[in-house]
Amino acid sequence: MEKIREHKWHILFPIILAIAVLLLSIPVSGILRTDTPSRHISLGKQYLVDQNYAGAVMEFTDAVSMDPGDRTARFSLAEAYQGMGDFSSAENTLLGMTSADHPDEEVAGRLIRFYEEQGNPVRALQTVQSMIDYTDGDDYYSRKAELLKQIFDTDHPYSEGTSHALAVSGGKVNGRGSNTLGQLGTSQGLFAQDQASDAWSDAAFSGSPKKVYAIANSSYVIDDTGNLWGAGANRSGEFALLYGSGTAESGWKQITTGADVLAVSGNSGNLYVLMSDGSLWHSGGGFTQELTRVDRFSSAVSTSNCGRSVYVLTENGDLYINVPDRYDTLAEERFTRIASDVTAYAPDGQGGACYVDASGVIRSSNSYLPQHPADWEDTDNGGVRPDFSVNGIACNGDRILLTDPDGSLYTWSNRGDFREAGHLAENGAIYSEQDLAVAEMDDGTVSVWRREASSPETVR
Fold it and tell me: How far is Cα 241 from Cα 230, in angstroms, rounded to an integer?
């Protein structure tokens, strides 16, 4: 009997050993089934609850690598990146789940919310417009109206014309400089060629101002209801009142009554008005003395001016410039596209623009970019990718201002000096005009960075 058992053991031992080797060669996950996408997703979600965003990124990345088609893992990965402040990776993760030719509605919804949370309504609006073009869905038209309202809520508190300036302060419009043509809204100094004051005074605007624009020798105010008012020069019919006047007049004249103006731009004798439905309208310039639709653009999100030139950014990210002829004529056919895929831009004072594209790269239509910090990435065609996401940009010709999604403001000089310069107010503005870069700060002041000035002027 003992010999039989010993004989069986000699037979069974190699079999048991082979089974053990076979079992050891099988991954543990194959037996226990613990290393699965769902396990990594579960751990990642717990890390999100604990605000351990780095750990969450690792787990969701593992889940995506195991199952690239897992939408929950990808959405969660974007959320984790956003939580740790890596907004570029969050955006790229979402963009990688859709395409321009066949946009994914769920991804589009996430992107729109993401851009809103980053304080970038223009980028959100461009995404909404792409879905309108693809689906023509009523809900997207409603979202478009909401986003345009957010753009309206962004202030434009300071502006300078040829010889005067306007500022919104304490719920009223103040002005300084020359009032020869009534551009300061009052009769004081009217017709006087040599009277200009550096002191601020009440511009006698009776409404509640939201935005001010000083263009050449004309002044414009958008009130808190969205109506547009003008004072000063109206020689070429730029006030859209069916007449032009060579006589200086004091007081403010109501230009629109539809309560839907987002922004204005122009030059001497011309006015462009951007409406809340994205339509752009023009008056003056010897063509018309009433607002006429600019058919060149089906929908725009921004307009501005620098010197004699006018800029328009469309909903699909195309940036145009209109450089007038020697008579300051801004004919519609003179608009020329200078950049595409633009999310934010700033006139550079040199007949071009600095802008941010949809991938977060800063570019210049004139190859004007200062020397950048060493940890920024050079990209194709002279672009540069900062080590943070850029929401807003302004330029005064020798300095660029940038903002991030948290509202932090940075200055970047021609000498390559890059530093933080404070924090924007909620709905605070950052924009360019003439040779100025303007930023509305969280302490209630407005900083005006002038060309070749080492520090900003505080104007309120």
Answer: 10
Domain 154-298 grouped into CATH 1.10.760.10? no
- The per-residue pLDDT for range 258-282, each reduced to its tens digit, is 778 999 999 998 999 999 888 999 9
Domain topology for 364-460 = Thrombin, subunit H (2.40.10)
Question: How open is the CA angle 311-313-314, to the nearest 5 degrees?
Answer: 140
Handedness of CA 269, 272, 273, 279 (dihedral sign): positive
Q: Is the pTM of this model over 0.85?
A: no
Q: Which residue is it, tokens 């040829």?
A: 162
The correct answer on CATH 1.10.760.10 for the domain covering 32-152 is no
**How far from 247 is each of 160, 235, 289, 337, CA to CA, in Å?**
22, 8, 16, 37
Show the tokens assigned to 259: 């309560």
Cα atoms found within 13 Å of the Cα of residue 345, Cβ hemisphere only: 31
pLDDT in tens, 355-375: 999 888 999 998 779 999 999
